[in-house]
Amino acid sequence: MEKIKDKNDISGYSFASDDHQTSILSFSDREATDITLPEYINGKPLRKIGFSAFRGMENLRTVTMPDTVHIIENSAFRSCPALTNVVLSKNTHNLAAY
Hints:
The protein is an all-beta fold. 0% of the residues lie in helices and 35% in strands. The protein has strands at 4-5, 13-17, 22-27, 34-36, 40-41, 44-49, 62-64, 71-72, 85-87, 94-95. The strands form 2 sheets. Strands 2, 3, 5, 6, 8 and 10 form a 6-stranded mixed sheet that branches. A hairpin with a 4-residue loop joins strand 2 and strand 3 (22-27).
């Protein structure tokens, strides 16, 4: 079964923010297959995908990142066997091992 999450649906995400930016710490929607990450959370740009943030999301096939994302930390998408399509931000300048 396909479950698409658009950029306006922030359920399932765990975030951390400071005065200037937001990071995704984890994602818990195990049914999601295709997601578009939000550009802004509470008025702050999404800048970082944290360590193991999407680890073990077995149904995840496609991830689309907004151009606000600059950093993708280690193992952000480890153990996501169905993941075949990732659309990176044109501003990503730090892409760690899967």
